[in-house]
């Protein structure tokens, strides 16, 4: 049997019973990968190519992703967390003019109600995270909150579009530009989201994506750093590629035409440029096999985005129309100029609802309905902040962040969910409220 027939057989077997949803038996996950024949074919093509590390598939993936988001440059990396580390670390490079360079002790404004790997790069480079509160229902920080946190030590604003819901990134870009601050968009949960018809991830000096299987598209593990700035792009790629000074593509020798002709630091004259290191870097590249998967997924991205939006709208309409649900939960909201590509459907239990989050989530779990918290809740209350006595600054009391920590969760809208599954989720909420109340 040839490879093509083997792939078709594998896809056929996987599809059998895929739509036979059995309430209470079949899991309703919050996220998951959706793939078919083309993804398998592309990955096998990359395997048969025999190159495997970063190569032609990675180059194509970078070009197409940059074109989709609307940036000049894209660097494919091994995870969204690595993407965040690279984006912030790039601003510490000796190549950045000293006045704008991010140094130890400088401040980076962010939020505590998010994922740790937006915060951890700040700590890793020796900067000080400054936390501002977010708004309930949008789960994003306001421009006013960010403005209140600026100090003479502020160099960067680094925040995420929460669950795919765009913050007012146009206004924040103008704010940062006028004050000489860097803006990094963590776009890991928001691939395909737009503000004023422009994709998120195209506004900041740098932006990041994640392609973990839970996200809008997957490369198994993987991420990307995007920018319009050629200098930042050069720095990111150097940091990603062991810190090397050479700009030769992987597997290419003497791309610059002067491999043995220059003086580098205190090295012998003519030292092989392929082994000259100007940055403190690592190997954080993605593989060609992963990129091949990403190329196939990119072809389906518009379909995935549309399905996420449809699932979100259906849940919102059903929850909004149900008096009991509407009275006991804060439903999500968004900027009227935004067109979110939702990662999940967030809900916050209102005060005096008559039940707590643990009881509700246990009930949903007993029905095999997946839920997730809004990541770290309040990162400053996480064990690692105390274990490592992390230096930080808090602006305000983070009251909404603590509410999120105690009362917020989200359910899935990913493309693998059917209308039947969503109806079962809605019915389960109603059943819980009927029993409790």
Strand order of the largest sheet: 1-9-8-5-4-2-3-14
Class by helix and strand content?
A: alpha/beta
Overall body shape:
globular
Helix-strand string? HHHEHEHEHEHEEEEEHHHEEEHEHEHEH
The proportion of residues forming helix, as a percent range, comes to: 25-40%
Supply the number of structural domains.
1
CATH fold field value: Aspartate Aminotransferase, domain 2
- Identify the CATH architecture: 3-Layer(aba) Sandwich
Oligomer status: single chain
The largest sheet, given as strand count, sense and whether it forms a barrel, is: 8 strands, mixed
Global mean pLDDT? 95
C-alpha Rg (nearest Å): 23 Å
Beta-strand level of the residues, as a percent range?
A: 5-15%
Q: State the name of the first-level CATH class.
A: Alpha Beta
Uncertain runs: none
Q: How many helices does DSSP assign?
A: 14
Summarize this, please?
By secondary structure, the protein is α/β, with parallel strands linked by helices. The chain has helices at 3-15, 37-49, 56-69, 80-90, 116-124, 143-149, 169-179, 230-240, 288-321, 323-328, 357-366, 383-387, 399-407, 419-436, and strands spanning 73-77, 107-111, 128-132, 154-160, 182-186, 194-195, 198-199, 206-210, 223-227, 329-330, 338-339, 344-349, 372-373, 393-394, 408-412. It has one domain (19-243, 278-437): Type I PLP-dependent aspartate aminotransferase-like (Major domain) (Aspartate Aminotransferase, domain 2, 3-Layer(aba) Sandwich).
